Amino acid sequence: MAENSEITSQNNSSKPPHLAFTTISNAKLHVPVQLSLSQPNYKKWSRLFLLLVRRFNLKGYIDGSVVPLSDDDDKWFQLDALLQGWILSTITDEVSDLVISSVSTASALLKVIHDLFHDNKHARAMQLEHEFHTTVKGNSTMAAYCQQLQNLSDWLDDVDAPVSQHQLVLQILRGLPADLQGQTSFMQFQDPMPTFLQAMGKALTAVLPMAMADSMEAQAMGKATPGNVEAMDEDKVVTVEIGVEVADVKTAHDHGNPTTATIPGTHRTLTRYADIFTKGLPSLLFLEFKSSLGIRPPPHPT
């Protein structure tokens, strides 16, 4: 009897759920992150879901502090079923297949999901740290390389081994090839050190002159020689280092003889290089970058 009284008191002392939660038909609108084993997003997902729960005073249902008064407490079981639906609608099938059959309440479901992403976290942290410190740019585009390091940083944060912005920037610089390290090494001496996004923007900017030099060299070659016609028979694309297609390069045939293969090098092409590369960069960096290309407005027609 005393036990039932204690449970009743426990439920009465908690704030009642906000009725507005019953109008939520799609939890994905409030938790726009789908929890996945292949993406480093557990902490982001968990925080967004807890914010949704707290907004409607439902926290007691997921931390176990609000329990059913009896096996016939329909109101409690309805609210718990609603929360389970929110959880399951914001995780991938691969995650739900691992956890759905082992639990019967929302609080137990959240605990199993937490354990799934934190079991053996020390071993996972060691593996991820090794991968983080040995990742180099190689043949990847600059954008893909930086994104890979950012993902590894997020995964390490998920297993409670966070990487600081300082470490992330240094690893970006450390993994660059020698020809780019000379152009970006100044960042390690800046105080304060650039953020990840600032360092990524500067690294992307350092790549563009090299990509443009390659395309100008190809343009200067003029007519294609018989030795390289075979390699150019199919439509090819010149792709700058960031991984964006810039211009199609095609060979034309005149009575069986190859003619000139050219790459556009006009003002319009240069502007396109600049616009692709500087999208999202600070305005000052954008202006300096555009100026370095020597872009001038096209002459007015006479």
Question: What's a concise summary of this model?
Answer:
The chain has 302 residues and is mainly alpha-helical. 55% of the residues lie in helices and 4% in strands.
Strand content: under 5%
Q: Which percent range fits the helix content?
A: 40-55%
Helix/strand-derived category reads mainly alpha
Poorly predicted sequence stretches spanning 5 or more consecutive residues? 1-13, 226-278
- How many beta-strand segments? 4
Q: Number of helix segments?
A: 14
- The average pLDDT score comes to 73
Describe the strand arrangement of the main beta sheet, using strand numbers. Answer: 1-2
The outline comes out as elongated
If you compute it from the alpha carbons, what radius of gyration comes out, rounded to the nearest whole angstrom?
A: 28 Å
Question: What is the end-to-end distance?
Answer: 99 Å
Major sheet details: 2 strands, antiparallel
Q: What sequence of helices (H) and strands (E) makes up the elements?
A: HHHHHHHHHHHHEEEEHH
Organism: Cuscuta campestris
Protein name: Retrotransposon Copia-like N-terminal domain-containing protein
